[in-house]
Hints:
mainly alpha, 76% helix, 0% strand
Amino acid sequence: MMAQKGKVTSALSYIDQGALDKAKEALDLAFSNDKSKDWFNTYFAKGKLAQAVFEADNPKFSSYFADPLAEAYVAYEKAMELDAKGGIKKRIITNMIYNSLALDLYSQGSKQFEEEDFENALKSFETQIKITESDKYAGIIDTGMYYNAGLAAINSKKYNEAINYFEKCAELKYMGITPYYQIYESVLGLGDTVKAEAYLLDLPNKFPGDNTITLQLIDLYLKSGKYDDALKYIKVAKEVDPNNFSLYFATGIMYLNQEKYDEAISELTRSVELKPDLFDSQYGVGAAYINKAADMVKKANDIMDVKEYSTAIDVANAVYAKALPYMERAHELNP
């Protein structure tokens, strides 16, 4: 037994020296022996090795563990479970091992999120949360971890999980109104537009005077085709911020979708005046003129009188011509 325990001691020593290959070899021998395979220190050493493999970031050791940090956490937990006297738990707390593990998980989760591996990012952040909330973590809880997990969840389309994390952010008053909007987006993701609308309409009670709520309602109503409701809130928003180009752009596109071309041209032209370097507004005005002209040509085709038809076509062509400068400018902005 002592010889096999010596293998574990050697493994821990090799880990401290950075000789992870020798540590793995010693630990494999310890796990292959019936007398040491269920010893708490063997699992503790496995946790240390797995964490060291992640931190080394060396391809030479990458085959040792499929998911080093997840396996490190499982090994540490197993070590504490096997240690009836609680020595391993004290060592983990005293040496702040779970603090460093939580930081490693945050680093891993952030990288996975950047690489758009959202499901694995969520797993990393969830394990970080589990560790940080435990009594083995010595330090202040970083509330940002709940927000990170929420973002990973919503991007993984795991909307119920996302709602839970964003509700925790709201409870902790983290990032003001932002997590409330993420909850709203998650509810929309679940397909419940009625609940999403009710949620937004209640937000002024929590954040009176926050004009961004009006903008969110406008966006919701435009996307759901509730144009009368959208116009009502656009009017309110324009009174507060009359030079916000996006309000005129949104109204113009709404009218364009309704084939109300004159109204669309008026709103989109104002958007261009306020922000002339925006491709979408320039293109939108051009599209409104083109669609109006096409509609005029269609109506002209029903005219039987040749002279009247010719006049109607000339008028339509004049409208087509008005689209040209906007389309040219749009092309300059987005070749």
